[in-house]
Design a protein that fits this description.
single chain; about 120 residues; alpha+beta; Glutaredoxin; 5 helices; 4 strands; elongated
Length: about 120
């Protein structure tokens, strides 16, 4: 009988723990570019001095990707970088996903469902 009670207590505690660990909805800051991207828009945080930014922009232009850029060194860029939690560029928001750096595998994975074949 004690074993049965012990198992019941463990089950209830496990259920409570699982309930507390459920995913919480993401609350975006007003300056976060994901507020305006919806599920399929693209925003790239760039800088004029960044070679990888220029390379990624060139890739996007050759593939006719529709995207918007935000200058990392501008006031809007600083707020966007802080909201995204990034300290380097390029940082690309695709829908609600963030790709940090010039990561062609991650960019390809996120852009292919949108109909872009870049890499």
């Amino acid at each position: 009988m004690r074993v049965l009670w012990l198992l019941m207590i463990i089950g209830v505690l496990g259920g409570l723990h699982a309930w507390k660990q459920r995913p919480q909805p993401v609350v975006l800051q007003p300056d976060d570019p994901r507020v305006h991207t919806g599920d399929n828009r693209i925003v790239m945080l760039t800088a004029s001095w960044c070679g990888y930014c220029r390379k990624q922009q060139s890739d996007f232009e050759h593939a006719d990707v529709r995207y918007r850029t935000i200058d990392f060194d501008s006031a809007e860029g600083k707020r966007a970088a802080q909201a995204l939690g990034v300290r380097s560029v390029p940082a690309t928001v695709i829908g609600q996903d963030l790709v940090r750096g010039y990561d062609v595998a991650a960019l390809d994975q996120k852009l292919t469902p949108l109909g872009y074949d870049i890499y």
